[in-house]
Amino acid sequence: ARLFNIMDGFTRKLYNDIRTLKSRIFRLEVGGASDGYVSDSSIDENQYKGELLFAGTASHSEVTKGALVYLDDGEQWRRTCAGNTEHGVGNLVGIAISSSPHVEGIIVQGTYRVSSTYRDGNFTVGAQIYMHTTSSGSMTSTVPTLSGHIVRVVGQAVKSDMIYVNPSPDFLEI
After folding, report:
1. Residue 86: C-alpha distances to residues 35, 89, 136 (Å)
2. pLDDT of residue 141
């Protein structure tokens, strides 16, 4: 009976801790461009197939659908920029599926058809995709090379306008 009481107290504390964390951290969902199975070839511009992450408490006004975003230390989503060491370096990164990613989520793994707004020309199929150095929220298949810029892989191109989103937590400052 004593062991049960110890476990019961532990279970109650664990439940309360999880409930507190759930409200502060995030949730993860798997979804797609529509209900049911969606093939990569049927994904339209700014649509996805993959895992969504729900986190943060707000989104900066500059964030729009399709932007590459990061979660800052104030739990607000902002657009990345490899030309600024404070805009997505070492932070959680993903693609906003709306202008309110703190509510509707970001794609953190899966396929995404990138609009020309956030794509530096056509991607080289098979190439790694990086945070853009000058156009905030954008992606490029060109490796950053200037001093002070950040090299961070956010995925790989599977088509000239589609990436497999799989952001690396690693980065290199040139």
Report:
1. 37, 6, 12
2. 93
